[in-house]
Amino acid sequence: MSLKLSELQVAPGAVHEHFRKGIGLGTGNGKRAGRGQKGAGARSGGGHKAGFTGGQLPLYRAFPKRGFTSLKHDRVVAIVNLSQLSAKFADNAEIAFADLVEARLIKAGSDAVKILGKGTLTVKNLTVKADAFSASAKKAIEDLGGKAIIDHGYGETAE
User: Is residue 65 situated within a structural domain?
Assistant: First the structure.
């Protein structure tokens, strides 16, 4: 099929008829054109800026602005349960952050990983490196001959 310039058509629904607001009562948006009766909102160039409360003290001025809030402390901590480790890894596995991302248990954009003790661990001799462990998770890993190593990803590790 060849396309000719004389056969080109506009896609259906792409062109709309121009709508003139305020032209007649039968148009569905006539007379006052959706601007109500009189007042600043009915005038051209009228209206108020966001946050205007009719002359009352606006909320952004009424509340005190004191102190300092730093966004650098907002960390995304990914949670992994013991049952998830059992489902994805085999015996004698060494599990680090990259392994959890590869197994799709956490997202790569996470700042930290915490292992929680929900579910039962069926895999033996796991070596798990994470930023934090719950007490029950650490006990469950060590009871099956594994190691729970706290690793903050800075190169140094603490057992």
Answer: no
